[in-house]
Hints:
Number of domains: 1
Radius of gyration: 22 Å
Number of helices: 3
Strand content: under 5%
Distance between the termini: 53 Å
Shape: rod-shaped
Amino acid sequence: MIAITIISLFLLFTGLFYLLNKVGAYLQAQDAKDEHEEIDNLIEAWHLGKAGKEQELHEFLGMTWDDYTRWLAKANIYKK
């Protein structure tokens, strides 16, 4: 009887852990998608001359050149 209870609890906690990991991964993906859309909107405004006219694009986005190139490489991975 105790063994069955222990196994049941183990399976319950394993299932909960799995579910929490899936929810966490989903939320991270949504955050990344929202961030990407926000940056895309800023880039569009910069290209249209609506904002950041006196700045390089990476400066307008608040990024160093290294940050920008890393972001760009990462963004291109998602578009493939």
